[in-house]
Amino acid sequence: MALIECKDLVKTYGTDENAVTILHGVSFQIEKGEFAAIIGPSGSGKSTLMHILGALDTPTSGSYQLNKKNVAELDDDELADIRGRQIGFVFQAFNLLPRTTVLRNVTLPLLYQKVDPVEREKLASEALLHVDIPKEKFMNKSNQISGGQMQRVAIARALINDPSLILADEPTGNLDQKTGAIVLETFEKLNAQGRTIVLITHDQAVANRANHIIRIQDGRIVEDSKRKIAQKKVAL
Prior knowledge:
By secondary structure, the chain is α/β, with parallel strands linked by helices. The chain has helices spanning 46-53, 76-85, 102-112, 117-130, 147-159, 177-192, 204-207, and strands at residues 2-13, 20-31, 35-39, 61-66, 69-70, 87-91, 165-169, 196-201, 212-217, 220-226.
């Protein structure tokens, strides 16, 4: 069953002679439970596409359906609700509050939803343990842990609302190869549990960890391929 359905997406900035079209009729589907990678070089349109998938922007024309709901037709409040409840974001720069504890960083999405403080901490603790952050790190400030741990804290924060989709933008871009591999293994574990992961990258080696590769170039899809990857036995 398709979680994401994009059909003929066009994104144009500006008007008349100043108009610049970034996406040219992009169409694809991503099924529930897939680990998909959207790969392309700088300027290919992948960041614009990511913003549309993340309900951070809307297409000029075409349709984007998430869980059978046409996101392109939603108003600002509805888009904010989609972002808060259905999509978990993981960014290259981590986007953690540096002088705030690891635990509190993860609870922040629930704070905005006015979840009881005790329940917030319980859910955040479970999410952190789920991505292999040890309890002794929970009260550390986020700038007192390693880069790989920071990215796994960001993944825990993305999980806190039990989203339909985890959208990761160059999640290993600020990490060395060994640490990046640990973060990718975390995504693989989550996918093995049934989570839908969409990872934006320019790195073919990163994209090769996914079972669905969508390649974009000059605002057009030039590859949309799926492959079977041997399922790893993982402890979750």
